[in-house]
Design brief:
The chain is built from eight helices and no strands. It is mostly helical and about 180 residues long. The chain has two domains: about 1-20 and about 35-60, no CATH class; about 65-175, Cytochrome Bc1 Complex, Chain D, domain 2. Helix 4 (about 75-80) packs across helix 8 and helix 6 (about 120-130) crosses helix 8. It is globular and about 45 Å long. Bound molecules: heme C.
């Protein structure tokens, strides 16, 4: 769970999320004891431990107000955090190339393919998974991108995300 990104949730948005979860009918779904099997035990237990989401959160600074919902880079930065784009596209958004334990999202700064895109191209890609080249992005189940879940993004949210990406320095692809 990318709790390090969700740590940025504004109080009102988190309250709305909790309100929604409480409105969903309870389901008795026993998943049994949690098990991470070899080699996951080694990878998670030894290599990744210090980078575990919970260990990189500044616990003193969580909570507070989200920026105003507007087509601004500031609101886009907030959306990127709470939608956890960085868990698949890397913290600097220049691509998770060669990573074994997370999906390999490409460079989405203007140093990558998106450089030649219009806002409309970006919106269509996020909402329908179809890039300007006509390529259909893989879904999360295929190791790709959760675009079917992004279909409901509002115009303001998409515009804010695009404004934020355009406010970033174009970066070359991260090296593995
Ligand atoms: C669960 C992992 C995951 C998350 C979360 C995620 N992405 Fe992706 N994204 C990917 C992967 C993997 C691809 C490449 C899929 C493919 O090529 O089929 C991709 C592709 C893209 C592309 C197309 C880039 C190109 O060069 O064609 C864009 C744009 C994009 N993502 C933006 C975003 C934004 C913005 C967010 C957050 C709102 C986000 N992604 C969240 C995994 C993710």
């Amino acid at each position: 769970m990318p709790a390090d990104h969700y740590a940025h949730y504004g109080d009102d948005d988190l309250a709305a999320l909790i309100g929604y979860l409480k409105s969903v009918p309870p389901v008795d779904n026993d998943l049994g004891p949690r098990q991470i099997q070899f080699p996951g035990t080694v990878i998670f237990g030894v290599l990744a431990y210090t980078n575990w989401p919970v260990n990189v959160i500044d616990h003193a600074s969580v909570g507070g107000n989200a920026p105003e919902a507007a087509p601004s880079a500031e609101y886009g930065a907030y959306m990127v955090s709470i939608m956890s784009c960085q868990s698949c596209h890397a913290e600097n958004l220049a691509g998770n190339y060669g990573q074994l334990d997370t999906p390999q999202g490409p460079n989405i700064t203007l140093g990558g393919e998106v450089a030649g895109w219009s806002e409309e191209d970006f919106a269509r890609t996020l909402r329908t998974g179809t890039t300007p080249d006509g390529e259909l992005l893989k879904t999360t189940a295929e190791g790709g991108m959760p675009w079917p879940q992004y279909a409901g993004l509002s115009d303001t949210e998409v515009q804010a995300l695009w404004a934020y990406i355009n406010s970033l320095e174009p970066l070359p692809n991260n090296t593995p």
